[in-house]
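Margin note from the TA: students keep mixing up input and output lines. Inputs are the sequences; the output is the structure of the whole complex. Example:
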Amino acid sequence: NAGVTQTPKFQVLKTGQSMTLQCAQDMNHNSMYWYRQDPGMGLRLIYYSASEGTTDKGEVPNGYNVSRLNKREFSLRLESAAPSQTSVYFCASVFRPDRRDTEAFFGQGTRLTVV
Amino acid sequence: TQLLEQSPQFLSIQEGENLTVYCNSSSVFSSLQWYRQEPGEGPVLLVTVVTGGEVKKLKRLTFQFGDARKDSSLHITAAQPGDTGLYLCAGGRGNQFYFGTGTSLTVIP
């Protein structure tokens, strides 16, 4: 099925460990996003990539890095995990041919626990 | 500080009742989206509104964008158990989308 695929679905890390969350979309969309979702906070934007070769910080970028490897793939890296990074992480792929028309698809999420 | 505040945060109603969820901000957005999210899943886009005062209908769901493009509402008529979920609004500015805090709706059969 077409859509956004995130891996892994679950992960437990020890404080200080590093890991990379993977995201891939097969809809040929230009824009991709990484969000984290915490109880009572909605979704907060970590980083986004408006097009292949570009990345920009969102609301909460500290402690994260991203790579837009190609048009399909956008990865999120935690260099030194902290308990405050325990969260559910969502990748989204967005197509906006014009302001009136938006297609947005989210992956199923990665549930990360840092102990 | 959240740019978009949603109310109520939690809502539990009986099947067949009507309800309205609000999404408010002091900032202007170029577009406003509504999503529904079910447990263990990612949000699913329901609608995008872009013009101040715009009203869109999706079956029993009616979405309205405020005249000043700072707020929006979602009205559900004759709620059904299948409407249960977390409803999120998101405001668009350039390439960024800012999400609200969410409204958790439970419809009791």
